[in-house]
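Residues determine shape. Take a concrete instance:
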Amino acid sequence: MRIDGAQRRARIGRRHRLAVPARTDDPLEVARDLVALHASDPPTVYLALFARSTSVDVATVDRALYEARTLIRMLAMRRTMFVAPVELVPVLHEACARTVAGRERRKMLGFLTEAGVADDVERWLAEVEEVALRAIEARGEVTSMELAEEDPRLRQPLVLSPGKSYEGRQRVVTRLLLLLAADGRIVRGRPRSTWGYSPYRWSLADRWYPEPPAQWSPEDAEVELARRWLAAYGPAPADDLRWWTGWTVGQVRRALSRLNPVEVELDDGTGLLLADDLEPVAPAEPWAALLPGLDPTPMGWSRRDWFLGEHGPSLFDRFGNIGPTVWWDGRIVGGWAQRKDGEIAYRLLEDIGSDALGEVRAAVAELTDRLGAVRVTPAFRTPLERELSA
């Protein structure tokens, strides 16, 4: 069976909620269909949902994140920050975050050893963890600055990567909160500012979730995560799944052996598709969209030529982070940026025709209205975004 690039792009339009008939004003539904939303750059969550809805605003997203708590912010795949549907949190924890937590703990112990905080750094860390957890329980929620006042050990400075060009310094409290979150014991709550550029308030996980998370074994969680990824991003090569999850080759093989996906021929090799997902997806009317930097759609695969073409050097930074992109009917055709005066500047990197250009202009006008007085600068700057925002 062969699935060409046009069919893969039709699936993006429908399944990633970007085609007009597929858009929805339910943030949870969008997150489920994409598996999870990238959240390394806080505004990405809002902008990704705006692009897939007709009337979602900041208040709607905030309600899902901080009131209904149907969307949860957590470290998961590739040690990357995501916003996930609440029912998927235990799956991501067992399939990905537990491994992240183990690595973070080993790094933390190494930092503490280098800092010479104690002869027994494991015991020292365990004591400081208990101090932090008791303080969070007593306060209900706390920022890192507030927590640091609880114990002088939390204010202990750490030197990261000493002697390197990227040497940095952090206090124990910063790394400790990251570790406790990766362990699944605490959760990032509401930030001081809506768009999340200010410190988060932290809460105990068992007080944050609407109900206790389900229990998953690591093996079952890997299978479930692979199934959801294939449903959202298939057909795609197994290497794309390995890159997206951050798994080992063995983990990928183990999960796929239980799913038994079907091999299909793609334009650039062999892809995998769930056995019950072989029927072609009907393409929607051509659509335009402005997606933010690190949007989950372009970050869903490691091989992107079938929708990116030759535009990568302008749209990615040197670390592999994609900037804001302009899409036309399942392909990236340009990039955009917001200037200091609020204007959204864009540049098309190929000729898409006058009708398509009109749709892109309409998408620009819509996003301009939604942003209003808000100014958004991506945390990860790309060549075209820097040029357009100047």
Remarks:
- The chain has a mean pLDDT of 95.
- The first strand starts at residue 37 and ends at 38.
